[in-house]
Amino acid sequence: MFGLLISRGSSARAACQALRHAGRAFESTLAAGPAAPETVVYPYYVSRTRFQSLPVYTDIRNGRTRMLTLVRRITGDLGALRADLAKELGDESIAIKSAAQQLVIKGDRTKEIREWLTKRGF
Fold first, then answer.
1. Are 107 and 67 within one domain?
2. Domain around 1
3. Could you tell me if 57 and 102 lie in one domain?
4. 1: pLDDT confidence band, cut at 50, 70 and 90?
5. Bridge partners of 74?
6. Any residues with CB less than 8 A from the CB of 116 and at least 6 apart, and which?
7. Are both 71 and 100 inside the same structural domain?
8. Please, are residues 101 and 92 in contact by the beta-carbon 8 Å criterion?
9. Residue-wise pLDDT tens digits, 87-105
10. What is the full DSSP assignment across 73-105?
11. Could you tell me if 65 and 111 lie in one domain?
12. Quick one: 29 and 81 in the same domain?
C-alpha cells in the first residue's frame, strides 16, 4: 500500500511521512491550543532517545521474581528528581545510581513514570 503511495508523486510521499510522524511520542507534549504552556524550569532534565521515546525501562532479575524500573539519560540534580518521583508515586523505594546517572525504582512502574514525565513536558 505504501509502495503505491510513494510511486505516485511527492505529495503522496509527504502524506506518507505525515502518517509516520503522527504517532510519535513527542507530539503528545505539545500545546493543544493557541495558548502557549507556561515554562517551568526543573533542576534536572530527562532527555529522550533518538527515536523520541522516554528512557524508562523495565529490568527483570532473580529468575523473574524481582521487577525494577530504570530511568536513564538524566542530567542535573538526581536527588530532586528522586524526591519529586517519590512524592508522585507515594513510594520511598527509589535508589540513585549516581555513577550511571540513573534512578532505580522497585516494581514495574514504567507506565506511571512515563505518564508523569510526559505531563511535566519531558
1. yes
2. 1-33
3. yes
4. very low
5. 46
6. 85, 88
7. yes
8. no
9. 999 988 999 999 999 999 9
10. -EEE-HHHHHHHHHHHHT---EEEETTTTEEEE
11. yes
12. no
